[in-house]
Amino acid sequence: MLPKFLARLSVMPALVLGVAMASAPAVAEAETLIRLGHTLNPTDARHMGAERFAELVAERSDGAITVEVYPSSQLGGQAELFEGMNLGLVEMNIAGSTHLSNLDPAFGVFDLPSLAPDAESFMALLDGEIGQSLLDRLPEVGIRGLAYSEVGFRHLYTNTPVESIEDVAGLVLRVPGNPVYNDTLATFGASPTSMALGEVFTALQQGAIAGAENLIGFYRNSGHWEAAPYVAMTYHAALPSVWMMSESFWQGLSAEDQELIAAAAKEAAMYEREVSAEMEAAALEELPGMGVTITEVDLAPFAALAPEIHARHRDTIGAELMDSVAAAMN
Asked: How many Å apart are CA 182 and CA 223, to the nearest integer?
C-alpha cells in the first residue's frame, strides 16, 4: 500500500487536471504542461508572481508551454510538493528557502537571525555570486533553482502583547520546522513548535499556540491577525522564496525552452518582490485600523543573541559560506 501522502499525490493531480481538462479547450498533444504548486493563498504576492510567470511563458512560447498554478496546497504541503517533483507529478514549486535547508543544510544560512542590516543588502546577496552558488547546488538533490523572490523581514505575531524580549519567554510559537528557527526562537526564550502552515490559523484560534512569525504581508492576507492581534517588529530573519523546477523535467526541455523559462522566472520573481513590498507597506497602514497592535520593540537584546546562534550552526551550514555572507553584509 502506498504511504498516505504518496497516495494523495497520485490521485489529487489527476483529479485537478481532470476538472481543468473538462472545462478548458483541447490543446495540442505536443504542448508542454508545467504544474506549479505552492502552499500560499491566492492573495499572496508569490501567487501573483506565479500567475505573472504563467502569462510570460504562454506569451513567449506562443502558447506551446502552459503553466497551471495551484495555490493553497491543492497539490499537497511542502513535503508532498517536493516528493511530487521527484515523482514527476509536479513540475514546479515556490517555497521559502527554509524548506530547502532540510535537503541541503547550506540553505540554512538564510534562516540565521540578524543576517542582513536591510532589505537592499539582502537582495544584493541573493542576486550576487553567493545566492547563485546556492542555487547551483540544487541539482544534486533533484531540483533546478530558477530565481529568488519574496524578500522581507519576519516578525512575531501573538495573542498576547510582546513589548520586549522578556515577553517572549515561555510562549509556544509556530516555526516552519528546521534547526535554525527552532534554535533562534528557543534562544529568544520561546517554546518553538513545528507545524504545517495550513494548520496555524486553527491552532491560533484554539489556543494550541500563542503565535507564530512571518512576513507582515503574509500575516495580513492569511487572516492570522484575527486570532493573533499583536505584532512585535523583531526583524529577526529575512527569508527569500526559491522558484524551483524538477531537475528531471528541466533536463527534458530543449535549450531554447530552458532559456525561456529561466528568464520568465527571474522576471516574475522581480515583479513579485515589488508586489510584496507594496503589500507590506499597505498592511502596516491597514492593520491598526483592524484592531492589530504593532509594537516597535528594542532590537538590541534580540541581536545580541545572534552570534551564539550563528556559532552553533557553523559546522552544519558551512563555516566558509557563513564567513562569505558575513563579509558581504559588512
From this structure: 24
